[in-house]
Amino acid sequence: MAGLFGGLFISVCGLVLLMQAMFYAWATVAPGFAPTELYATYALGFGAAGVAAMILGAWRVVASIRKMNRLSRAARMSTPSVPSETHDDW
Questions:
Q1: What is the spatial distance between Cα 34 and Cα 78, in angstroms, rounded to a whole number?
Q2: Cα separations (Å) of 52 from 14, 33, 85, 86?
Q3: d(CA 12, CA 18)
Q4: Over the Cα atoms of the chain, what is R_g?
Q5: Buried b / exposed e across 14-49, counting CB within 10 Å, b at 16+?
Q6: Is 71 exposed, middle or buried (0-12, 13-18, 19+ CB in 10 A)?
Q7: CA atoms within 13 A on the CB side of 28
Q8: What is the pLDDT of residue 86?
């Protein structure tokens, strides 16, 4: 469960990084800002980090769900499907 919430948190952090990248990309071409090469580099760096964080977060969520399903399936398989002797009257 921690992996699930961790993956969601990483994905949200990736969205924040992408918003930062969009701001710097806008500031690179906005008329009120002096266009600098540094803002374009920031936009590229934040964008790449945001995409990487989104992919990593999605991978952690999927891996966590698969692990929880595997553990749940193992728990179901280990329980007997035959009713116990104390419940013969059912």
A1: 67
A2: 7, 28, 55, 56
A3: 10
A4: 24
A5: beebbebbeebbebbeeeeeeeeeebeebbeebbeb
A6: exposed
A7: 14
A8: 61
Predicted TM-score of the model (pTM): 0.74
DSSP label at residue 36:
-
Over the stretch 18-76, which tens digit does the pLDDT of each residue have? 999 999 998 888 887 777 788 889 999 999 999 999 999 999 999 999 998 988 888 87
Rounded to 10 degrees, the C-alpha dihedral 10/16/22/23 comes to -150
